[in-house]
């Protein structure tokens, strides 16, 4: 298996995470860097949050994007009007490109869903020319996403299955401090730098927060699909109570931190 992310519909992903990855993409690009005339690879493009942000740079020569999910690839293709951009279905651990093809390979919110994350980093290094850049960013599920931890801690308090789900969620690959940096170094990248990037997730109300989870999107949504109707209602009521925190339903805002890592191909 080369992806542990569950996706049913591109629109569901957009509500779950796409709208927030679009906020993260400009910060990540600033960290990864760009230069005129470059060829860029977006590994795990999803619905195109990073890809379409990259396209705002008129100086780029070419942007290739791959994703393991054909649902995401098709959605991105339908949005695309830029002749510099190409989308295709592919595996991050077996990239369909020759050695030294790109100036930079970037991965936005992808490596923590790749069971063989080190192999994906090795592939990104392989397809980038010497002197080029490999960069990636992942959420800090354990300590950097209070809005999501609120949800999974609530679910964990209700059942053993919820506690097991929390353990999986909080300790996915590449999420611990220094873990991604060590992997970059192990894969032979030089001048490796790790930092934190922060955005905010702003929700209109509980339904805005919960709808994609209730529809089965993403890791938490996948867990919800394993519950019977009575247990789903119990979980939703408990999470609603946590979200509202004794106040009327309405807007809520949560800070979210991601680990970002960058290295140079020797």
UniProtKB/TrEMBL annotation:
Organism superkingdom: Bacteria
A Pfam family matched in the record: Methyltransf_11
Keywords: Methyltransferase, Transferase
Residue ranges of domain Methyltransferase type in the record: 41-135
Molecular function in Gene Ontology: S-adenosylmethionine-dependent methyltransferase activity
Family annotation (PANTHER family): 2-METHOXY-6-POLYPRENYL-1,4-BENZOQUINOL METHYLASE, MITOCHONDRIAL (PTHR43591:SF24), METHYLTRANSFERASE (PTHR43591)
Protein name: Class I SAM-dependent methyltransferase
